[in-house]
Amino acid sequence: MSASMTNGSTTNTTISPEMTGRHDLISSDQVEGTSVYSPAGEKLGTVKYFMVDKTSGDVAYVVMSFGGFLGMGNSYHPLPWKALHYDRERGGYIVSLTREQLEAAPAYAEDMSPDWTNSRYGSQVDTYYGGLPGM
Q1: pTM for the whole thing?
Q2: Are 61 and 73 in contact (CB under 8 A)?
Q3: How many domains, the chain?
Q4: How far apart are CA 39 and CA 97, in angstroms?
Q5: Is residue 36 a part of any domain in this protein?
Q6: Residue 38's Cα: distance from chain center in Å?
Q7: Which residues on neighbouring strands pair with residue 80, listed in sequence order?
Q8: Residue 9 has pLDDT above 90, yes or no
Q9: Which of 40, 92, 115, 118 is 20–30 Å from 2 (CA)?
Q10: Which pLDDT tens digit goes with each residue over 35-76?
Q11: Does 115 reside within a domain?
């Protein structure tokens, strides 16, 4: 895959990932909808979106859609971004969690949204995952 860079109305050189050395980068719209699996290969859910620190630009959490049927009744689970590891063979992310651990994790319903401006919510998420082996 290559990309064209434009400068105003003119198109410059085509840049391939091999030329830039950045072939491991992925756009946010390609992350959304990516499957998340347990180490045993069980599909746990899909990436809904992720939360980016406005100041540092670092991805802090990926919010995973979990449960439900045909997109209804899902719960949303923020997972520390660093806890996910991309598996090229599966074309998805692996997280060292069981379904039971995920069910007990901090979550919210589709029609609700946590107050990310309140540091207590992020601390609750970090405390839960920090207490699990392998996280």
Answers
A1: 0.72
A2: no
A3: 1
A4: 8
A5: yes
A6: 14
A7: 61
A8: no
A9: 92
A10: 999 999 999 999 999 899 889 999 999 999 987 665 566 889
A11: yes
CATH at 94? 2.30.30.240
Q: Range of 89's domain? A: 26-130
Q: On the CB side of 47, how many CA atoms lie within 13 Å of its CA?
A: 25
14 domain residue, yes or no: no
8 SS3 class: coil
Of 57, 132, 63, the residue nearest 93 (C-alpha): 63
Residue type for position 27: S
Give pLDDT, residue 109.
Answer: 87
Residue 18: predicted pLDDT: 45
Cα 1 from chain centre: 23
Smallest CA-to-CA distance from 128 within 61, 68, 73, 67 is with: 61
Segment 21-33 shows an average pLDDT of 74
Does residue 39 lie within any of the structural domains?
A: yes
